[in-house]
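With this grant's support, we have settled on a layout for protein records. An illustrative entry appears below exactly as we store it:
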Amino acid sequence: MLVMMEHIRTPKVLHSMVSSVERPPPTPAGSQLVLRCKDFRVFQVLVPQERDCLEVHASLVRLSRPEKYGELYCLSFNPNVNKEEREESWSFIDLKADYKRMGVPNNLWVSTAANSEYRVCDTYPAELFVPKSATPAVIVGSSRFRSRGRFPALSYFHQDTLAAVCRCSQPLSGFSGRCQEDELMLQAVMKSNPGSDFIYVVDTRPKLNAMANRAAGKGYENEDHYSNIRLLFIGIENIHVMRSSQQKIVDVGEMRAPSMTDFLWGLESSGWLKHIKAVLDAGVFIAKAVADEGVSVLVHCSDGWDRTAQACSVASILLDPFYRTIKGFMVLIERDWVSFGHKFSHRYAHLDGDPKEVSPVMDQFLECVWQLSEQFPCAFEFNERFLITIHSHVYSCQYGTFLGNCEKERRDMRLRERSHSAWPQLWKDRSQHTNPLYKAELSQSQGILRPNTTPYCFKMWKGLYNHLEKTTPPRQSPADFLSAVREESQQLEEELTNHQERIAALTGEPIRWEKTAVPRRRSSRLPHRHSGPDPPTSYCEPITSSELKNSHLLSANQKAQGADPAPSGPQLRSPDVEDDLESGVADLSSRSSCGGDDSKDPELE
């Protein structure tokens, strides 16, 4: 069922996107319904008759709380109409090809059949990569000592340093428990990296929370039992804290004309950006350990499917430019979230269930990526619209990609036979999701990203949470405007080429291509600006009017003598700027407000 309303462009809202339906007191004009959606949009519907309003309210409440998967949109139509298209959609993402791209399997990491038919861990994928020295007995023994049986398995392999990012769940250690097989498993992870004699174990929970779990027979690794590890706690809060925090940030987005004091107080009291920073800090630590130190990292939280997925996927984006492309980002979500058993149906309330299981885990990951794209605007092939579209698909149940809580559950539901995958449609619409600033040849696109995670570098994601502006007529974003300009420029260049070819055909003379450099004007009275979070490494004196005048007189005298003017005094432009002008798009990454170490103005070097 679709809810259709007179609202600018008559939006269509899937009933599964409706989070709540409120019925305020009736007014003289009729009865109102307020629909709050899971993507933070709010719709007000006016129903003239009270009786009709009651019926619509009851229907929407029932439809927005499906009790079984068969009631969801993606399973409510006949997929056999497009059988070939459906089958192709599920084979669009190939995780084996991604591991092969990393160089796995190799003499260090191999595929294991231990979890075939989900025998060892029913929330893991059937095919996993483990250290070559890990025997089946060690794998099974380790799984019995880990919560939910989620033993250490490979998530990402760095070919340059041979370090790896692995994931698992917390050990069932209690206060003094230990397991020889689990200790051997972590030893095998360490030996799979010849360049290091230890591994980092990153527990993404606050240490106090991890210590509390020891009373329930769980906990964290004892460094006295695991001689080859270095344990680190990150401090990402649990799902209940995150759920409450997001509701507060949504309330901030719903403010109508707030004062600066009210807005800043609401933003601070929500704690939302503090949590985003914690997730990003976890990814930064893992990426630095793997790329700079060459040390493998084992990541876990409690059960290994929420904070672990966040930390591993953020680290992969920082480490590998492939995951900053449209196709690569799809592969990353399919691997670290869908395949490794993130609880989509529980976390995003696909079915009517326990509200305490709901939490914005994927929302936080997508926001971390958005925060990175704000610091490195030229490093990501996709734009903000792409992230928001994925966010909508996670909640909408329009496709079967994000249904269920693990691979086994999706297999038992026969989703490949009954629904379609979201990835081919996103790929088909990639022209709408492409970042016009993306330049794959830039150094920041090819290497590790090093974001600045100081507090002032984080922003409220206005495009996702400030839904009040979505009710106004949409204005063209700067990215869309730039895309339109580039498209028009390409058309003009094609027309120019056609005209030149016609002229050459008429005159019989070959085409002569000329390259014109467009000089950049700079005010002589303004000092150099620093637009990054770090202080300038050098200082350049401003150009005075007298210096500029003398420079012009010298240039005129040299021209009169037939000589090229020699550079003297302060330079008004740099080769880097000229290269960017010739490319048609300036490198905005070096002018980002929070660009980290890689974001210094080239003219300050």
